[in-house]
Amino acid sequence: MATMKDIAKLACVSTSTVSHVINQSRYVSEEIAERVNRAAQELNYSPSVLARSLKTNRTKTLGMLVTTSSNPFFGEVVKGVERSCYQKGYNLILCNTEGDQERMTTSISTLLQKRVDGLILMCSSLEGEHIEIFDKYPDVPVVVMDWGPMLFASDKIQDNSLRGGYIAAKYLIECGHHEIGCITGPLNRYQAQMRYEGYKRALNEEGLEFHPSWIIESNFECDGGYEAFNRMYQKGPLPSAIFVCNDMMAMGVINAANEKGIAIPGELSLIGYDDIQIAKFMSPSLTTIHQPKYRLGQAAVETLLRKLDNSCDETQVIQLEPTLVERSSVAIQS
C-alpha cells in the first residue's frame, strides 16, 4: 500500500507538502498540487480513514437505532437519513433494537465506542428512560425522533401529531359524519396519545358524543387493526366513520371489514395516518394524514451536522406539520 513518502518521492516534493495537498490544509501552487495528485493516482494511494479520524476527531459516520417493525414508515424515514448522509459525505451505521431495552443500550454503547460523530434514535418504546451511557459521552450530539419526554439532553424531530389527529377527525366531520370512532396506538406512547387528543379536540368542538365502545387501543400494526375492529364490531352497532391512527392498522381494519361484508366507504368510512407508500394502492385507496417521512430523516441529519459544526448550542425541537391526503376511503354523508 502506497504511503505519503512514496508519493513525495515520485513527485519530488516533501512529505509535508503531500500532506497539505491531500488534506487541503495549506495553499500549494497548482503546478505542485497537480504533480502530487498525479503521483497519488499512479500509486493508487488511498488515505487512511482511521488516521484522518484521529487527526480531525471526526469519523464522518453517524449511528441510527430503530425499533424493528413491519411498518414501512420506518423504512421511508431511514431512506431520508441514508440519502442525506450520502449527500453530506457521511456514512451511516444502522442498528435494529427489536424493541428490546438491553439490545438498545448495547447498540448505543457499541456505536459510541466506534466513535460515531452523532446518533439518531427512533425507538419510542423507551421514551422517558434515562440512558446512562450518554453521561460518558457528553460531546456526542443526539437527535431523537417521535419520542415524548426524555431524561437526557438531545434535539428532537417530530410530527405534530396533535394537529394531525385534529385534521383527521375534522375532515370526517366536514364530510357529514357525526358518529366517529377511533382506533389508537399504544396510549403510553407520546405520538399515539397526541393523535387521540387531536381526535377528541375536534369532536369536542362540534359537541359530538363519545362512545366508549367506539374507542379501541391497539398496537400500530396490521394485526392490531384487525383485532381492534373485530372487538368494536362485537360491542354493537358501528359508527359511520373511524379514525385509525396509522395506515398499518387501517389495512387490518379493511381486511376485517371485508370479511364481514362491510363495504368501505359505502357502509363505513376510514381515515388513516402516515401516508405510507402502499396507502394509495389499498382497496379502496386510503384517505390519510401525510407525515413528511423523508423530511423527518433529512431534518435529523441536518440537525446533527449543525451541532457538529457548533452552529447551534441549545437543544431544540423541530416540528414538521402533517397534511391531509384525500383518496377513496371516506364517503360524503348527506
Count the helices. How many? 11
- Taken from the alpha-carbon principal axes, the silhouette is elongated
Task: State the CATH class of the largest domain.
Answer: Alpha Beta
User: The CATH topology of the largest domain, please?
Assistant: Rossmann fold
Average per-residue pLDDT, rounded, comes to 88
Q: End-to-end span in angstroms?
A: 77 Å
Helix residue percentage = 40-55%
- Domain module tally: 3
Radius of gyration (Å): 26 Å
Which CATH-level-2 architecture of the largest domain?
3-Layer(aba) Sandwich
| Name of the CATH homologous superfamily of the largest domain | Response regulator
Q: From N to C, what is the helix and strand string?
A: HHHHEHEHEEEHEHEHEHEEHEE
Quaternary arrangement of the chains shown?
A: single chain
InterPro entries: HTH_LacI, LacI/GalR-like_sensor, Lambda_DNA-bd_dom_sf, Peripla_BP_I, PurR_sensor_dom
GO molecular function, one term: DNA-binding transcription factor activity
Protein name: Ribose operon repressor
Pfam families: LacI, Peripla_BP_3
Considering the chains and any ligands shown, give keywords for the structure.
334 residues, LacI/GalR-like_sensor, Rossmann fold, single chain, 3 domains, elongated, four-stranded parallel β-sheet, Peripla_BP_I, alpha/beta
